[in-house]
Amino acid sequence: MARPNQIPIAEGLFTWPDDNPRLIGSRCRACGEVTFPHQPSCPACCAEDTEDYLLARKGTLWTWTTQGFLPKSPPYAGPETPETFRPYGVGYVELPGEVRVEARLTESDPEKLGIGMAMELVVVPFATDSQGNEIVTFAFAPVPKT
Amino acid sequence: MARGIKDKVAIIGMGCSRFGERWNDGPEELMIEAFDEAIADAGIAKDDLGAAWLGVFFQEQSTGKSGLPLSQALRLPNIPVTRVENLCATGTEALRGAVYAVAAGAVDIALAMGVEKLKDTGYSGLPERTKGTFEDLWLPGSTAPGSFAQLASAYAAKHGVSMEDLKRAMAHVSWKSHENGALNPKAHLRNRITIEKVLEAPMISYPLGLYDCCGVSDGAACAIVTTPEIARELGKTDLVTVKAMQLAPSNGVEMSHASWDGAHAMTARIAAKRAYEEAGIRNPREELDLIEVHDCFSITELVTMEDLGVSGDGEAVRDIMDGVFDRDGALPVQVDGGLKCFGHPIGATGLRMVYEIYLQILGRAGERQLDNPRLGLTHNLGGIPNRNVCSVSIFGRYDA
Question: Which of B178, B264, B344, B379 is catalytic?
């Protein structure tokens, strides 16, 4: 659920605020190629005719790791210090028939991650800006087994 | 129809600086150190050079843009100097420029230099300092170790290898590089390590631990190339010639689609196939005598053995554990210590690999000399497993 003072890490990446957020990709009107993030031209057929395309919210974990150290800044824009840093999960999620998306994972325990497991899009806090706004970004979370 | 580069160009001189933390030397000193060795080896004068290529990756931090750093460091006689950059294949790309120029008949003798100076620039190594654009903000915070760690996860899943067995094979890869690096006076890391130490090291990006990652170093390496005919006129008898130079960049398919399984580098397979065709090699495992691969991480070396076709798919773990790629094995890999221990000054790395093949073929590799090698292969993988520039090159005796 979106709260006041939450702003997305970048415009046009995911629908927000939204109780069921979707990643915003693009689809080529000529050949159907899907990309993420949105691209004005198609990398498959070079047509300059693409449309916004909301990606599936669920997919499967394609491969993964845990980022075990604080990445260099720049380019890393996270708020952690070496003292506060905690390893986080990173992986690719395959959205069937669409595209693979590299994303943060909400889970970082190697015992709880496995290729092929069901994953679902979530929006999570990333940092706080100088005005006190909470910057949010997209991530994938394991879908609880029922 | 082009017939390829095989045996059109000979290497007549090579040089390589000591790699490591060269706090007291700039890129100029590193280039001079490599060049002095190469030009003495070639037995020519600076005025004999017709053109030069300079490979530098991090030009912002260290050496500078353009061909000027090389032209000025060596006070070259105002010959054309072209600066090239192609990620971790940068040094190999400098050589490809020089080799193509000689093969084209545009110049008689050309120089290829690769250099990287990272250690006192305030930014030792990857990822590249970037401009703070949109893309940097939404990238999920993956790193070079993080990207290659995902290769390990995918490999284990695809081939049904337990992470314990994969970790042990990766540890053997790093142990081997340290054993070899200990015999190389120019290597950055010359200490021996135990398998246990690798397995117990702090985790960097699961499942890659500290010793699964290569060093970041300062260094320079260079080659002087000409035609076999001119080489003979210069009195060279044992000729080392270029057999193949191939480059395959990703085109984005692996990033997007299910056409790739994440457990290998598509580009490496494409470049290797073309290189074997260019060199006339049918069975690389039997015909090659040594290999230098881009072991930025231990898993990269393991997977590359399959991409190069020297191990069958899913069989690299067994070959590594059998010692096939050890210095005394059937097909030694990273005899000089590799990126892991010789070091990884990005722009110099490709030429450093060629330097080892060259020394080995000429019987000049000192304590780590192999028994009469004739044909060697170098491999660079610049970028990440699903978005990279991959080079595969082959060098050998003229009569091989």
Answer: B344
